[in-house]
Design a protein that fits this description.
By secondary structure, this protein is an alpha+beta fold. The chain has one domain. The longest helix has 14 residues.
Length: 128
Amino acid sequence: MEWTGKWWVFDGPAYSRLWEKSAIGALIDGGGLALSDIEVLFSKNHRGVSFPLIPDDNAMLEWLNERLLNDPTLIQEYAILEALRVPGNKVVLHQNFSKLGIENCNSWGIRWASDKHPSRSHWEMSWS
């Protein structure tokens, strides 16, 4: 996993499953997913994805403390994403809208029901 300055690039063996099953992150050219900090946390906590950069709980705390310095709202946004995703909803975050051809949408995220996928259906609800 590598930080690009905008997102984390995850190209581990589970990246295609994260996208196809859960619509987490955004596919990137050459293979892999672009993940935000909150998507990394969600994938680790709820999808059982292991990231080499975060091998254990101590490394997770160090990583989280470092990321909180860059984004003090990280925990709040993670709590929102977790509340929306745990029941099965798919949520695409604003930084991934353009990768799905969604333009002129001034929102934090867009939701799809559990039986829908962003690559195959229109969005249902957004949050500003």
